[in-house]
């Protein structure tokens, strides 16, 4: 509650012409916005681009922000919509997805910090599993993915997701249900599934 | 109900109803078990996150992009980056404009001195400074502060950009800068009092910073005292005066972007 009050004060300060207040908002939310964007778009460069767009859109639209609304919800809504728009634009232009060196290095570092004691073989199995999970995640629709990643990886409750996206809780549950069904199917059909899942158990 | 149960969002009573149903319905039980396994597998995902350095530099990259996009849309606020990173070689457009203004003032004074008596010139300058410094009753205090900042900027820039190695100290026309500085220092205290709204806190701070610098300029003893001028230059640098001025003016200019917000609603995906 106190944080929300602070958010409201920050918004007031930005509206009064205080750019430092805007910087404070960015510092406060950059990581969460970036992570949601990354979970939806699945690419670090695109996630940074989307997260920057979110803050720019927010800054430009701040004068129209309803004072009774929750700033964080509004920010998350812009994030989800911008990430989905980015996926649409990307689909519209020919694109071959190649995981770049930076992306692979982020993944390797994350795997190392998650299980520093693991031997190289086990780490390779884990890496393969991560690959299959990411692939499955990007086979579901952007809307289903948005709802799924918010609930599963970003600790939003179903009701909170409904509030952020301005849809009913029923719609969120339905999207989550469909997402889980499709993910199951994708993980099952993945050729390496039995190998990595069995080895990892 | 299954989804809520999987994520532990089902009330106790509803949970027992579901459990009872799952015991009786093989199809729902299969769905539930499969989904529970999927939730477990998906929980093993490790998000590949960038390192701390990436997030530390986030604001700088965002500020740079905002700067660039403003150039595209308004051709204003160029130079935020160069001010921010302290580039001294490439000056932003406003610096050239300010330098041109100062040059015009210097040429004007030179011509004036050759045509009129010093007393009369000084009297006219003081009258002009008073007229410029006089607060307009119809203009709100923030606008007055921005006007004050703009006038102070011209003085501060003249001193900050002065290079003793390549410029004649007398080209600075220090007596004139000092006269205007005195006028601005006198205006500062009333302006600071009027900037009492907490939302104007930054403007108030900037006016205070400018007051200190302008007071130093007003008290410079002679034009050839380079160490005193360098002291003022150091003060401008250490307090980040030019950066703060630019931010205040950038922020004021950005309000014209409100129309861009209309595009936001159109891009809704949900």
Structure report:
The complex is a heterodimer of chains A (201) and B (270). Chain A has 201 residues and is mainly alpha-helical. Chain A has two domains: 91 residues, Rna Polymerase Sigma Factor, Chain: A (Orthogonal Bundle), CATH 1.10.1740; 100 residues, Winged helix-like DNA-binding domain superfamily/Winged helix DNA-binding domain (Arc Repressor Mutant, subunit A, Orthogonal Bundle). Helix content of chain A is 78%, strand content 0%. Chain A contains ten helices and no strands. About 2% of the residues of chain A have low confidence. Chain B folds into two domains: 41 residues; 176 residues, no CATH class. Chain B is built from 14 helices and no strands. Chain B is elongated and about 105 Å long. The interface between A and B is large, with 71 and 54 residues.
Short characterization:
The complex is a heterodimer of chains A (201) and B (270). Chain A has 201 residues and is mostly helical. Helices cover 78% and strands 0% of the residues of chain A.
